[in-house]
Amino acid sequence: MPRAKFQTLTEQMFYVLLCLESECCGTDIMEKIRSLTDSRVILGPGTLYNLLEQFVDEKIIVETKTEGRRRSYILTEKGRQLLENEYNRIRKQADDYEKLFREEQ
Q: What is the pTM assigned to this prediction?
């Protein structure tokens, strides 16, 4: 049975949504991710714009303005909830790691 779309997020998806807590355009998103992660996560324009299109289609983000080819986006309430759910999932994984590996010491 295939996994539901956006049930869990890839690392790139998570960071794109994280950056869209405030209005950003694509180039700003790529720079924010690079800066936030100390270049650990790098997102190319093809991947980014594909994700943005999918997120808009699913009403996870909305386009806020267009200036020539430059488009800006922001999270919707649905997007905030998706990001919050993913954050909680990641935290639970970290908690499980702590239970198994930190208690041994």
A: 0.89
